[in-house]
Automatic annotation (TrEMBL):
It comes from Aphanomyces astaci (Crayfish plague agent). Transmembrane segments: none annotated. Residues 9-126 form the Tetrahydrofolate dehydrogenase/cyclohydrolase catalytic domain. This is Methenyltetrahydrofolate cyclohydrolase. InterPro entries: Aminoacid_DH-like_N_sf, NAD(P)-bd_dom_sf, THF_DH/CycHdrlase, THF_DH/CycHdrlase_cat_dom, THF_DH/CycHdrlase_NAD-bd_dom. Homodimer. One of its GO terms (biological process) is tetrahydrofolate interconversion. Gene3D superfamilies: Leucine Dehydrogenase, chain A, domain 1 (3.40.50.10860), NAD(P)-binding Rossmann-like Domain (3.40.50.720). Residues 147-204 form the Tetrahydrofolate dehydrogenase/cyclohydrolase NAD(P)-binding domain. One of its GO terms (cellular component) is cytosol.
Amino acid sequence: MMGRATKVISGTAISAKIRQQIKDNIDSVVALTQTTERPALGMIMVGDRQDSRLYVEAKGRACAEVGIRAENRFFAQSTTQAEILRQVHAFNADPTIDGILIQMPLPATIDEKAVVDAVLPTKDVDGLHPYNVGELAMRRRTPYFTACTPEGIVEMLDQEAVPIAGRVAVVLGRSDLVGNPVGMLLRKRHATVISCHSQTTQVLPFYPNCRLFFVLIRKYRSIDCTEFCMSRAFLWWLKSH
């Protein structure tokens, strides 16, 4: 957030609070059911990108912190699409695996769409399966999962009691993982959403009336923070993929 009276929202503090709640919920269910089974997340990574491995390792640590079992499957860059699909189907069929995460990007030799579509909607924790995207887009419908970054953005607004309903929101970015689902979540919360992207020639005319502004792309040629202050909009600045 930026403006005359700037307040920086601590995502770290909110995350810690939510993680503790998740841990408490899992511990309570385990105690009540007297089971040794805990929720499990199956993660698939292909290739040797260092940033992807760091992401997977961080997710594994987060799982361990709250009591979720992480089942990581690492594949070489040369792995075929058929092999990855076999692993996806194995996770789908495994009743002890509650969620599946495909670490993106996949090598160019693998069709990401085919892999995403192969994941059961009920285990699609990234919310990328067409079923979950469709449910998110429709009124009075609820997807099994929504992408975590958009969920996190809206949760942080809620934690700070920032009104959404009735407000004009400008969303800069339209990626499947962040920009599009943010817009859909805001519409479900009765915001008036204006979607801007790399082909939007003029963003400035939207400033005066907006009260929520989301920057969900790496770079943009004409963002001027001075204009944000003049518009008196509530601003959200997020560096994302």
